[in-house]
Design a protein that fits this description.
- The protein is an alpha/beta fold and 200 residues long.
- It is 42% helix and 17% strand.
- It has a 5-stranded mixed beta sheet.
- The N and C termini lie far apart (49 Å).
- 42% of the residues are buried.
């Protein structure tokens, strides 16, 4: 049995907050028509898709926070988030397979064949075959699903941060470098979730 796992991140470009990554394996009977690159779906459709993905797929989401991004850079932080999401997903896989009637021979849980597909140019350090492909989130449903989970989770976190640091407008721009975001940072200084290594 070979599984295909999609990996994608959300939040490389923002000036604040974590970078998020999703890892998803989809069942054969998944309603693939609900998927697309997360940036091409409305918020309502992303939220609807998230519910179905979490119900039917084997999935995980991982975050790397702003202080780590500043320390190791955004590319390495994105790869670390994908690695962590993949490893979390792998731990769920045997139970998910059993639930879905997929037979995994006893004693092979740690030697399952998983082919990972990453949106982008680099693969995280995982102990499974991995291919990095630009625009993979427009081609492969597993990557689309990972993109959706990462985007929804990160947006949800930024809305929560907006309640704590309301003057920064995180609920509206989600930390991306809008004119208002840059201006408020210059005016009152960075919030505790700003990525201080980024240009303002």
């Amino acid at each position: 049995m070979t599984f295909v796992c999609g990996l994608d991140e959300a939040g490389r470009g923002p000036l604040a907050g974590p970078v998020a990554a999703g890892a998803v394996i989809l069942p054969e009977d998944f309603p693939f028509e609900i998927l697309n690159d997360s940036k091409k779906l409305s918020e309502k459709k992303r939220l609807q898709a998230e519910l179905v993905i979490k119900e039917k797929a084997c999935w995980a989401v991982a975050l790397v926070e702003n202080d780590v991004i500043d320390r190791i850079n955004i590319l390495q932080a994105s790869l670390l988030a994908m690695k962590n999401a993949f490893e979390k997903m792998c731990k769920k896989l045997p139970k998910w397979a059993e639930k879905n009637g997929i037979l995994i021979p006893l004693g092979t849980e740690n030697s399952l064949l998983i082919n990972a597909i990453v949106d982008g140019n680099f693969c995280p350090e995982i102990s499974y075959p991995c291919v990095a492909e630009p625009k993979a989130d427009c081609k492969y449903p597993q990557v689309m699903a990972a993109s959706i989970l990462a985007k929804v989770q990160r947006d949800r976190i930024m809305v929560e941060y907006d309640k704590i640091y309301s003057q920064y407008g995180y609920a509206k721009h989600k930390g991306y470098p809008t004119a208002y975001h840059r201006e408020i940072c210059r005016k009152i200084g960075p919030s505790p979730i700003q990525r201080l290594s980024f240009n303002y």
